[in-house]
Amino acid sequence: MLHPSSTARAVTAFGDVTRCQRVRAAHGIFGKRRASNLIAASHSIRVNPSRGAPIRSQTSLRNHIQPVSVSSPTHTVSAHTDHFTITDLRTHNASRYHYIFLRDHCPSNIHPSSHQKLVTAGAVKPYIAPLSFSISESGIKVDWNDSHSSAFDWRRLETLEYDQDRRLIQDAPRLTSWDMSNLPSDKITHQYESEGLSKSVITNLITYGLARIKNAPSLLAIARTISNISQHATDQETLSKTRRTIYGDTWDVISKPDAENIAYTGEHLQPHMDLMYYESPPGVQILHCLQNDATGGLSTFVDAIECVHRLSPTSRDILTSFPVEYRYDVNGHWMSYTRPILDVLKDDPIAGNMYYSPQFQAPLRHFAKFANVPRTYEAIREFEDLTTAEEMTWSFRLEPGDTVVFDNRRVLHGRTRFDPQSGGRHLKGTYLDWDEVLNKGRRVFGMNLQKQLLPFKRPNE
């Protein structure tokens, strides 16, 4: 309840109407509320453009609110037709919040122990508007026209910020596309024993899509480093957090006769992503080198986001709409999934994923028209030329103890041909879901992480 003696600055929604009209509105339209909530304020929002005009509906309250501002020592709040503008006087940052949004995100709508919502977004009335509000150094209190009150502290409002893409927290890692002209290979290469390894690797994994760790003791040690797994977990406990596939919890990349996967040969591996024949391919892949004495076999990595940016608009349109089936039908498995190569917005290639694995591509059959075949192949060729271009490719030789962590739905990986007769080459791998990595970044380091909704940065920007 607001009182004239309150140190908080208060505003009512019935400013220039008479006292009787205020009381009538409070008891009639908005339910039986104590009129003191309406009368106590010294500043008001003008509801009716013509003095004394009756309020005929709950919607009319919101439609006739005229801008007014109230200040505390730290903040200014301005009420408008359908939103508040809140300005932090210390930083001069101004953010807008729709009334319907604030009513939906009232702290009382959250269960105290589970932190889950008790009220759905669809339950908020479309005519919601403030009946009155007050502000103080700690926050804002709003009395709504549905007989509910909300109290927000300023810090809570900052976490809810969504105006002008400020929903993307400023200290979050910024996704940056790359080619060899701007990839900071030294920055994304870490020693296993270095201080702050986990945070650095997670940051680079989000920013550039990959990170390299030298002198790592084992594959599972890296899995514990970057995911929400205790550093003291046993290997068995760690395996329970990895993404199990038809290849197991972990798998070995080693040349062998009658290989069930082309990776298990010495053949050249064109840039690709793993398990595109899954409905939900793994998000993060880890490759750990155990042995590499063979001639050849350089590892290669390419940023698919930068490739998409360089595509012609026509090719991008084709690759976002043409379905491609990926298939694996070996050793009693029949895995198959059909999707476009580019599952992205036409103007924003980070708002989605890339799905490209030419080695597992089934026959192309989903042409809308017979005449579309040549142009579709031209679009695929243009994309492939970009993924194999030297200026787009980071290539290096993995040494024992080297580990590479990368985004399996962003970064293409491959390998040059090697001679199995010249020496052994043995990598061990596993997959993690992105949720495990983001979970650790948020929980352990307090990082503001959203993989897909990050401000995007082009090279040389």
| Spatial strand sequence of the major β-sheet | 11-12-23-15-26-13
Question: What would you call the shape?
Answer: globular
The biggest beta sheet reads: 6 strands, mixed
Beta-strand percentage? Answer: 25-35%
Oligomer class? single chain
Give the termini separation.
52 Å
How large is the count of helical segments?
12
Number of strands: 27
Give the % helix: 10-25%
- Indicate the radius of gyration in whole angstroms: 29 Å
Q: Helix- and strand-based class?
A: alpha+beta
- On the 0-100 scale, what is the average pLDDT? 82
Low-pLDDT runs:
1-9, 12-60
Describe what is shown at a glance.
This protein is α+β, with helices and mostly antiparallel strands and about 450 residues long. The chain has 12 helices and 27 strands. The chain has helices at about 20-30, 35-40, 60-65, 100-105, 155-160, 195-205, 220-225, 235-240, 305-310, 315-320, 375-385, 435-445; strands at about 10, 45, 70, 75-80, 85-90, 95-100, 130-135, 140-145, 150-155, 175, 190, 210-215, 250-255, 270, 285-290, 295, 300-305, 325-330, 335-340, 340-345, 350-355, 395, 405, 410-415, 420, 425-430, 455.
